[in-house]
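Researcher: For the record, we're logging two predictions in this thread. I'll number them. Prediction 1 follows.
Model: Prediction 1, sequence and structure:
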Amino acid sequence: MSSNDSFLVIGGSGFLGRAIVDMLLERGNQRVAVFDLKTDGNFDSRVQVYQGNILNEDELLSALNDSGTTCIIHTASPMPGAPAPSFWKVNVDGTRAVISAAVKAGVEKLIYTSSASTIFNGADIAGVDETTPFPKKHMDTYNETKAIAETIIVDANGHGGLKTAVLRPSGIFGPGDYQSIASYARLIDDGKTTMQLGDNTNLFDFLYVENAAYAFILAAEKLSGPVEENPVAGQVFIITNDDPWPFWNLARAVWKGLGHVPPKTTIIPRPVAMFIGLISEFWGWLTGKPALITRFRVTFACATRWFNISKAKTLLGYKPLYTMDEGVQKSVEWWKNEGSKRGY
C-alpha cells in the first residue's frame, strides 16, 4: 500500500537509501526524492534527485520546499573507518541541519538511521532491547556520533510539529552491498576463506536490506496523526532479521552460494586473534598500510550480539519480509549478475 506522503531520502544513493527508494516505488508511492552529496544518475525517472551537502541548510531547505516533502528518511553517514571529523560533521552537525530545515519547511515526519552498535561496547549482549543504555565509552567515533544524533532526533520530536523516530538496524547485507558481500567474494579470490576468528558459537543479528527498508516505510506510516497521541513519535527501534546466526555462518552461506566451500577451517582463538590484531595495527602504523586484522574486527567477529525486537513488532507491526536464507540467495544472485561486474 502506498501512502500520501512525499518522501525525501537523504543519502538515497547509498546502499540502504537506494533500497528504501526502490521499495517506496514498488509500493506505489509516486512522490519520492533523493538528496545526496553525489548521485550516479541511475534512478527511476519518477525520482526527483537533488545534489547537495547535508551541512548546507539552504540546500536542504530548497530541496524540501521544491519536492513538497512531508517525510524525511535520513540515511546519510560516512562509512565506518572514515576519518573521525567526518562523523562529527555529518552525523551530528548534519543531523542538526536536517532538523532545522525540516521545521522551517513544515515537514511532518523525520526518521533517522542509527545503528544497533550504539549500545554495543564489545562485550557479549544477548536479547537486550532499546532500554539498554549507551555504554560509557563507545567502540569508535561512528557509534559515538550516531548515539549523539539519536538524542538530537528524539529531543526534536514535537518541535514545530515535527514527529521523529530512530531506527537501529543491525548488520545490514543484501543486493547493492559493496561492503560485506563484496568482502566475502574477495576472500574467495584471495584464498583467505579458511581462517576463522573465534569459535563461531557467538550468535549475531544480521538484517537483510529489504527488511530494513520495510521497517523504515512502516515507521513512516505509523508516524501519522497528532504527535501527542502517536506511540511511535520520539521512539527508538532496533531492527533485525529476528533470526540470529553464528557469526561466520553468513559468510559461509554466501561462499556456498558462489560455489565455494573452504577445504578446511583454521580456528584462531579470540585471545590469540586479539594479540595478532594488536601486532597488525602496530605494523600498519609503522608502514602506513591498513591492517588486515584489527582488535575492532576481532571483537566484532567474536562477540555475541543479538537483540529483542518486540518493540518494533508491537508498535511498527514489523515482521521480516525475507528470511536469512532468502536474503543470502538474493544477495548471491545480485553479486553473480551485477555486483561482480563492478568489482570490489
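Researcher: Logged. Prediction 2.
Model: Prediction 2, sequence and structure:
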Amino acid sequence: MFRLLKLMTLAPGHFHAALVLKRALHGVHHRTHVYAPLDGDTIAYLARVAAFNLRRDAPTVWEVDMRAGADYLERFAREQPGNTVVISGRNRPKIDLMRLAVGNCLHVIADKPWIVDHADFPKLEALFRDAELRDVLVGDVLTERYEITNWLQREFVRDPDLFGAWQTGTPASPALDLRSVHSLKKTVNGAPLVRPWWWFDPDIAGDAMADVGTHLADLAVWLVSPDQAVDYATQIHMLSAHRTPLFLSEDEFRQVTRLPGYPPELQPRVANGRLDYAGTSTATFTLRGVHVGLSTGWEFEAESGDTHQSCARGSRATISVRQQPDGRAELFVAATDPAEHATVLAKLRNKCDILQRDFSGMSVTDRGTEAQVMIPESWRAGHEEHFGAVMEEFVRYFHSPRMVPPWERPNALARYYITTKAVEMARAAG
C-alpha cells in the first residue's frame, strides 16, 4: 500500500532546513509540521518557505502547521502527525534530537554535521543500532555528491583502464587532496544570508572540519572506497590535524548577522575588538592505505563564492576538479606519465562516449598536457538545487528501503570518525 512521506521539522535553526523544501516531490505530503521555539531562526525558516510558495516559476504549495513555544520538544516527543523528521539547526544537540526521533520510530533526514566532538561518537553508533532495531531510515544531506564534476570524477576513478590503481601518496603529497573555501557573506535563494550568532560559537556549531569538513570526509570515502564499506577502526589512520583561526571585525560580524554587535555569549572569544572564528582546518590520514589530505576554510567574502578543489592521483591518470576564475568547477584528466598522454586521452574519450547514454553532449578537449571534460550546461545545477536531489533520493529510499546501499551506514561512521578525530587532534595541538 502506497503511503505518503509526511514531514515534521524540528528546530529549524539553519537555512538548509528550508532548502530541502525548495521543490515539491512526488510522494511527499504538502503539509509540514514544525516544532520549534518562537525565535528568529524559526521566523527566518517560515520566510524562506513562504518565498518558495510565492515565487513566479514552479511555486510550491507547502502548508505549515506551526507548533511553536517553550514546550516544543515535549510536544514533539508526545505527538506524531508525520513519519519523517527534518533536522537542521544547532549542531551540538543534533545527535540527541535524532536519537529522540528514532526512538519514536520516526525516519530522519538530518543536515550535517550529526556530531561535532569525538566524545559523541558512541551516540552515533547507538543511533544506527536504534534505527536498525526500529527499521527506520536516517539520511545525511550530502549535497556534494550531486555536483556533476564530483560525480564524474568518481566515475573516472572507478575505471581501472583510465585511472589505474590509487597511488599511495605521502603525508606531504597525498594521493587524494580535497580543499574547500566557504564565504560567510553570501546570497541564498536570491537574498543576503543572515547567520545566527551561534554559528560563530564552535561549542555549538563546531570547528570548520567538524561542520563543512563533513562533505570532504564523505567525498574521500566515496572516492577511495566506492560502493564498499569502510571499517573506521581498522582502515582509517589519522596522522595530523591543524586549525588556524579567522578573525572577524565587529563590523563584519554585523554585516552577516544583522546584530548590533557581539552578543554576551561570544564575548569570551573576542580579543582586541575581533572575534576568533573557526577558520581553516586541515587533516591528513590514510584510508585503506591511501594518503588523504583535507583542508576546509572560511573567508568573510570571496568574489567567486564557495570553492571546491579535488585531485585524485592514480597509477595511470590524475583526475582533478578545479574551480575556475568565474567560479565554475571544471574537470581535468592528465596522464601520470606524460608520455602516455595520447593513450589516456583516447581512454577518456571512450569513457565519455559510454557516458553519453546518460550525459548526452559531453565531450573532451585536448589542452596539451591534460584534457578537459566539457560538461553540457544542462547537467550543471547550483548548490541550492542539490538539496532537492538529496530529498528525491531520500523519498525513493522511504518508499523502497531495500534500495539503501549497505555501505551507507558504516561509511557514515567513517566520515564522522575522520572529522571528529581531526578536531580532537587539532585542539590537542593547540
